[in-house]
Q: What sequence folds into this?
């Protein structure tokens, strides 16, 4: 799964949710050398790649609702 606009707070929050609760994993070098943007458009914020790639988990796995953690 490729996420565009990963520098926006809403996309980053959604990605964190999928990582923590559904087992998606980040492919860290997928966009190495690509363009970057400051998180939330704040010039003082960390510059991150504009896109992020995540690997989907095994589709047969679905955690129980009680196992979800806040993001």
A:
């Amino acid at each position: 799964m490729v996420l565009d606009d990963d520098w926006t707070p809403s996309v980053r929050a959604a990605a964190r949710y999928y990582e923590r609760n559904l087992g998606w994993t980040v492919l860290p070098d997928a966009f190495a050398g690509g363009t970057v943007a400051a998180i939330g458009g704040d010039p003082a914020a960390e510059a991150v790649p504009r896109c992020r790639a995540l690997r989907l988990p095994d589709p047969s796995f679905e955690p129980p609702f009680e196992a979800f953690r806040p993001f």
